[in-house]
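User: Round two. Same drill as before: sequence, then structure, for each protein.

Assistant: Same drill it is. First protein:
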Amino acid sequence: MAIFSEFLGVTLGVVLTALGLDLFLVPNKIAAGGVSGLATVFHYLTGAPVGMTMLALNVPLFAMGIYRLGLKFGFRSLYGTISLSLVVDALASYLPVPTHDPLLASIFGGVLTGLGLGLVFRYRGTTGGTDLAAAVLRTYTGANVGQLLFLVDGIVVLIAGFTFNSWELAMYALITIFVTAWLIDLVQEGISYTKAFFIISQKKDEIAAAVLRELNRGATALKGRGMYTGMERDVLLVVVNRSEVTRLKDLIYKVDREAFVILADVHEVLGEGFKQWRES
């Protein structure tokens, strides 16, 4: 059942990614990095189908990946790569082009591809492309994968700018890349619906008791040491929902007006009182 849900998630992600390409990016010549960006350039140079070009470009990448990294990418990666290529070409001739405004196309194309790729990654798949290329390059250079991804995508955008003789299209492609990256993170990490309080106080026990009594939340004491004073003290960690933030602030203020409080976003909390593991 878990394997079925994973493949279903990868399939849904592939369809959304294909829609982003077919509806917005390819018709408006927005080559937003990666294998799909190169395939878009080749499509306008030669008339070759975008999906089959993506598949042809991914074959040597997979060969290099197997050679350098072994079979770590697994069947789901192969499934995601092949299915995306097939779905892109299968839908291309049936879908209308909603807009020829490059700004709208870059934003909405980025939203759909970001949601799609986020789902693919969330369900442990890949679609090949530059993430595989970056992983292979890392074995040669030792550089950070994120930096290599940005470098490879930047090169694709430059190639598209020269090919289409339009640096405006290249700039729109950069917008798509940033929107896509943001949506991928959002899908994988989730919307920040909880907050984490780090509380340093001389009255930590009273604050912890009040949190348990008035908010029905737990508190964890973390060991800390002030580097200036050299004094050891506990730091309380309390995680609450957004609706409880003001109540916890008021509670801390009532107990200790001298408390030092750090408030941080938390993207996902798994466990008692929050999301259960089976829901993640």
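Second protein:
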Amino acid sequence: MRLVQLNVHPLKSGAIRPVTSSTVLPRGLADDRSWMLVDGDAGLVSAREVPGLFHVVADTPATDPSVGAALRLRAPGHPDLLVDVPQSAPVAVRLFSLHLHARPAGPDADAWLRRVLGRDDLRLVWCHAPEQRTLQPGFSQPGDHAAFPDSFPVTIASLASMRQLNDWMVERALELGEDPPGPLPIERFRANLVVDGDAPFAEDGWSRVVVGEVPFRIGKPVGRCVMATLDPLTLTTATEPTRTLARHRRFDGGKVFFAVHLVPETTGRISVGDEVRAL
């Protein structure tokens, strides 16, 4: 297998930032999901609540070396905003049921995001201490940690599995007398690593993968949510791919699954084109 795509998301639910190489840290890819939005009650705000987040382009020096600050925010029709590393005292925030602490980015960043996204309660925060967050018991080891991903530091998806899913979607549409849909892109699943060269859903049986020279441990399969049904360009929702996943990939009390979570076992550098060895 080969690594064919490598994606970082500096702002949780922000636009996907494809890169050709990335540094792997214990918390995941460098700068991946280091920033997130919270509401007036300090709870996570994602594209589930504000789909327009998909159109906010967030870059750091890890995704664009020309960025002259800790974070650069861009959005159509708005001036760019540079954000420095926050120095303010950490505040309590909630990531789903997790109670964490993060540093506020400040009023300029908050005002910019409120204008772009049309909500007056948004605040931008930065994960200053990813080691504060432990991972799901039963699927992690002492010392495992992450910044602001939903569950685990890294996700990996297979193009072979995506092709199979697209074939299943066509079959289902024809069975129901519907026009067959066009293929969905793998980006619907916002994976950090995308590989090709194995059988569809071979990842279900992996226990470890080595990307280049960097080993990862499998955490668990990725349970999918409504965000996979949201078109990142038009911001419209549809029944797919959830409808077809529910037919073929429903496990564990009704959840639907696509891709798998990874936990880095060491640090290192990985690049598009690297060999991927699954165990």
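The chain has a mean pLDDT of 97.

User: Perfect.
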